[in-house]
Amino acid sequence: MKFVAIQANKKFITRLRLGYHDEAPSLATGYNWINEFKHGRTNSTDNLREGRPSTATTKENIDMLCDFMIKTDKRLTYQHIRTSLGIGMSQVHKILHEHLAVRKLFTRWIPHNLTEAQILRRIIWCAK
Fold it and tell me: Are residues 34 and 69 in the same domain?
């Protein structure tokens, strides 16, 4: 992309539109890239950004939530989990639903993964 950025701005934007069609970046993004290459940048990958890393969805938090809270007391609320672990509500949701694959039914956390026997029983029951 560096060699293209050296060309005239309009040709660069036109080539982006021809190459990427509907997925082409906006004009502002194209002009930002041109500006970056003019100032000596050599590639288009993102630079590392500073900031606070995500520390809520760690292996320790996932294991603690799985072993201690869900297996011992299945009637936990999001609020109780949040205050116990000291993490945000969205991270609690992410751990429960993406990492542990559980959902809450009848005020209890139920594993979402079914065994083959459970699936077969559901199919037979639904066929009746």
Answer: no
CATH number for the domain spanning 95: value is: 1.10.10
Per-residue pLDDT of the chain (128 residues; tens, 9 = 90+): 555 545 567 787 788 788 888 888 888 888 888 888 888 888 777 777 776 666 777 888 888 877 766 667 767 778 888 888 888 888 888 888 888 877 766 555 556 677 888 888 878 887 87
Q: Find, among 90, 89, 114, the residue nearest to 101 by Cα.
A: 114
104 phi and psi angles, rounded to 5 deg: -100, 120
Cβ neighbour number for residue 54 with a 10 Å cutoff: 9
- Let me know the angle formed at the C-alpha of 109 by 102 and 91, rounded to the nearest 5 degrees: 55
